[in-house]
Structure formats: C-alpha cells, structure tokens
Amino acid sequence: MRLKVIALFLALQLLSFGIWKTMSSPQTVMADPVPVAVTAPVTVTHAAAGKAAAPKIDFAVRNLESSQATLIDSAKSRILEAMAKLPAGHTASVGNIILDYDKNAYRGLGGNKLIILRAVNMGDTEFVGVLIHEIGHNVDFAFLKPADKRKKSAFMDMGNPVYSSDNSVRFYGISWMDEKTMKNAANNMDFVSGYAMSDPFEDFAETYAYYVLHGNDFRALTATSEALYAKYNFMKNVVFNGIEFDTDDGKVEANNRPWDVTLISYNLDNFLAL
Q1: Domain boundaries, position 248
Q2: Does residue 194 register a pLDDT over 90?
C-alpha cells in the first residue's frame, strides 16, 4: 500500500503502538477474459540492475520477543541483498524499514520513505516480493517527483493533488481516468494482477514488482495487451532507464492473472545472482 500523505494515519497509530500497522492482500485468482491484441512486438534485451551502493537504511523493530532476536540480522541481510539489485536512486527513496515480529501482523506498507515488513511467517521469496512491492510505492512517491506544482492532474492521493509534471501520472493514465476510475476500455488483462486493479498506486507497485521479479514473463504478456505493453515500456524507459531483468522463464498463461504478484513463485537465488 502507498500513502503520500501519512500524518493523520501516523498520529492514529502512535496512540496504540507507536508506529504504523501494515497491510496485506487476499490471495484469490482472477478469471480469464479475452486478451487484447498488441500493435508492436517487444524487443527483448537483457540487463541486470548492476551493483548499487549499499543503501543507507535505518532499521527498527517492533513486537520482538527475546526468542526472535536471532532473526533480525538475517532479515536485514536479505533486505540489503535484494536492494543491491535495484538502481541506487530507487533504494535511496527508502530511508527507514521497520521489521514487525508479530506473526499476525499484515505483511507490508510503503510510502514516504518508510517500509514496514512482517518479518515472521513469510518465506524468503514472499518476503522479498513484498519488499520489492513496497519499494515500488516509494519509487512512485519519492523517486518520480513532480518538476513543478503549477498544474494539478486528475489524480488525488489521500485528498492531495498529484501534479501533472509528476511522471507517475503518465503511468496512471494508461489504465485510469483518476484515482478511483478505470478507463472504459480497461479490462483485467491490462493489469499484472487483481490487486493492481485496486487503484493507480497499487497498479504501479504491482507492476514494478512484476517487472523486477518476473521480467521474462512480463515481456511475454506484453503481446497480449496494449496497456501491459505500455506499462512495461514505462518501467523500462522511465523508471529503470533501460534496465531489464532476466527473471523467470517467460512461460506464462496469457489469459490468467494472479491476485497478488508477491505470491507468485520465482527463483530467488537467480534474482540475487543478477
């Protein structure tokens, strides 16, 4: 989940346990509508993210029991290992990460340079998937920033305007009229997941995670939807400056979408070896 304006939310949570509560997604699977024909092929070239400088992250923990203390270092290590595969500008959009050791907590929240992750009851692949999704929110919020604030777009985030000069607006406009309204022609084959259909901000974060962790699958899907073709190329050219990811095998069911990108299996070792 992405929040551009967090003051009220933070204040409410401070009253109860000192910091925010995380959020998660359900795990159902979507139906299979007819795909959309694409007008141009994708040229597949490979590039890994390369070696980024170690991000400067302030870590904190909450709900930690003494028996869980040994888990902290492994969680931090996994986070930093995964973040090293992303461009430095993306990881610089994150300043603080809170590890929540309540096994019943929701899985993750990101925005305003903060990420909260449940650090228990998730396997490594899901943990990294949620991390990448939440980094996507921070990239949307802090990396893609408006050049000026002279003109408001049709999009609002928590009651505050998203300005027309914010490059994120170009992405939102592929499938959305505003933060609540999809374009009339949009259908669920134009999104990488069901959760991406929640709003433009979840669309961005889910697409970001899919681009990073399922690059070959995403490239295969661009042949089924003009919107996905546009979203892939936005990620490639605007967000990643030409970097592409050789992740997954490209063998994907074109007429199916998962509910949540972070729950799709992938080879974590291959991603970390890029």
Answers
A1: 152-272
A2: yes
